[in-house]
């Protein structure tokens, strides 16, 4: 993991297309802006975990349904 220190107004680039802008630093909270092409999904980490968990639960339910049909 790369760890960088940035001040408000400074940026970080990821590749040629993604720019992260530090908008504000207030106490322990940092506000960032992200400029990325529309074809790149940008999602908060906790939402990604929730989606992954929901997808896993859906797969398990489908497997259970298929097992009942098979029997």
Automatic annotation (TrEMBL):
Top-rank taxon: Bacteria
The keyword Cytoplasm belongs to this UniProt entry's keyword annotation: yes
Main location: cytoplasm
Keyword RNA-binding set for record: yes
Gene Ontology BP, a term: regulation of bacterial-type flagellum assembly
Compartments, as annotated in UniProt: Cytoplasm
GO molecular function per UniProt: mRNA 5'-UTR binding
UniProt entry keywords in alphabetical sequence: Bacterial flagellum biogenesis, Cytoplasm, Repressor, RNA-binding, Translation regulation
GO cellular component, one term: cytosol
Database matches in InterPro entries: CsrA, CsrA_sf
Stated family: Belongs to the CsrA/RsmA family.
Function: A translational regulator that binds mRNA to regulate translation initiation and/or mRNA stability. Usually binds in the 5'-UTR at or near the Shine-Dalgarno sequence preventing ribosome-binding, thus repressing translation. Its main target seems to be the major flagellin gene, while its function is anatagonized by FliW.
Subunit structure: Homodimer; the beta-strands of each monomer intercalate to form a hydrophobic core, while the alpha-helices form wings that extend away from the core.
Name used for this protein in its record: Translational regulator CsrA
